[in-house]
């Protein structure tokens, strides 16, 4: 009978520890995933902004030497990510529906030579774009410049909103993580409340009683955080496959910081929660344990 009771107690303890590890794993994985999103927000926003094109059209009298010199100017500028020269002949080939039958009725190609430019993400702002436009228009060979200003404003506004919401959700999730992990560890310690009080009644000091439980909490936190890190590494590998533009593996330092934060959070939160949970039962009267 005693053997059956001991087995039951052992299964209950194992189940309790498993629940704590599972809780820590789930919460830290969600928190780590949000952290990975936060550190890659700039890359995602930069990718969106860098795909908004700016087109520079030349005047009809601009010759090849002028357009090539303009290309050198773009190459040496600090705000251009990439650019492509589109001659008026290429423009006709790329847009056959634009001309239709009009090409046969006209003596010359009405389209203009141009450069399709993608700016670096940091320069795709309303003020920066205006300055760049003024600078490029100062070139006497430039006839016109076009870009979707509405799309630029929408991109910046939406990215700013998303960033604020992510920060708010991160803060809420961090608090929830601490509460859930603390609750799971308190339930685990609750099953040992009589053992804690018995040790205290025979003269053991509070620090002596707390020590093994704190180490057990740290161990459970370490296991949960390690499992979370493994899951996050698989997530990073998957993201790097579908979004290679983020260069997550090449720029590994921010990811390493998030993973280190997950590990530290698992250990620190578990240690603090275990400390206060054991302290609570140490301060209770014997009658309050029931």
Description of the molecule:
With 290 residues, this protein is of the alpha+beta class. The protein has two domains: 2-45 and 155-289, no CATH class; 53-147, Alpha-Beta Plaits (2-Layer Sandwich). The chain has eleven helices and four strands. It has helices spanning 2-39, 41-50, 64-76, 88-94, 96-99, 102-105, 126-137, 149-190, 193-201, 206-242, 252-283, and strands at residues 53-58, 80-86, 114-119, 142-147. The protein has a four-stranded antiparallel sheet. Helix 2 packs antiparallel against helix 8 (149-190) and helix 8 (149-190) packs parallel to helix 11 (252-283). It is rod-shaped, with a radius of gyration of 32 Å. The model has no long low-confidence stretch (mean pLDDT 78).
Keywords:
about 70% helix; single chain; 4 strands; about 290 residues; four-stranded antiparallel sheet; rod-shaped; 2 domains; Alpha-Beta Plaits; alpha+beta
Topology (elements, then pairings):
Layout: H1 2-39, H2 41-50, E1 53-58, H3 64-76, E2 80-86, H4 88-94, H5 96-99, H6 102-105, E3 114-119, H7 126-137, E4 142-147, H8 149-190, H9 193-201, H10 206-242, H11 252-283
Antiparallel strand pairs: 1-3, 1-4, 2-3
- End-to-end CA span: 24 Å
Number of self-contained structural domains: 2
| Residues in helix, % | over 70%
Q: Determine Rg (CA atoms, Å).
A: 32 Å
Number of strands: 4
Structural class of the secondary elements?
alpha+beta
Task: Please list the strands of the largest sheet in the order they lie side by side.
Answer: 2-3-1-4
Low-pLDDT runs of 5+ residues are none
The count of helical stretches stands at: 11
Spell the H/E element sequence: HHEHEHHHEHEHHHH
The gross shape turns out to be rod-shaped
């Amino acid at each position: 009978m005693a053997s059956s009771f001991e087995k039951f107690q052992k299964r209950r303890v194992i189940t309790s520890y498993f629940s704590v590890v599972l809780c820590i794993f789930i919460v830290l994985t969600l928190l780590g995933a949000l952290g990975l999103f936060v550190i890659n927000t700039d890359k995602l926003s930069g990718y969106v902004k860098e795909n908004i094109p700016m087109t520079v059209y030349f005047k009809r009298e601009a010759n090849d030497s002028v357009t090539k010199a303009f290309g050198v100017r773009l190459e040496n500028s600090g705000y251009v990510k990439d650019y492509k020269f589109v001659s008026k002949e290429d423009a006709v080939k790329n847009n056959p529906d634009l001309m239709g039958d009009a090409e046969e009725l006209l003596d010359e190609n009405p389209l203009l030579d141009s450069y399709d430019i993608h700016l670096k993400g940091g320069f795709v702002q309303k003020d920066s774009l205006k300055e760049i436009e003024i600078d490029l228009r100062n070139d006497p060979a430039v006839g016109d410049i076009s870009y979707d200003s509405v799309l630029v404003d929408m991109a910046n506004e939406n990215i700013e909103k998303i960033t604020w919401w992510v920060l708010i959700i991160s803060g809420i999730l961090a608090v929830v993580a601490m509460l859930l992990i603390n609750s799971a560890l308190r339930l685990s310690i609750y099953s040992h409340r009589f053992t804690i009080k018995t040790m205290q009644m025979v003269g053991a000091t509070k620090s002596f009683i707390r020590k093994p439980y704190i180490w057990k909490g740290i161990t459970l936190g370490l296991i949960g955080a390690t499992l979370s890190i493994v899951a996050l590494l698989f997530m990073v590998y998957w993201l790097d496959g579908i979004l290679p533009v983020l260069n997550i593996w090449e720029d590994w330092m921010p990811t390493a910081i998030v993973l280190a934060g997950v590990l530290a959070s698992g250990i620190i939160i578990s240690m603090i929660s275990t400390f206060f949970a054991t302290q609570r039962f140490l301060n209770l009267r014997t009658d309050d344990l029931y």
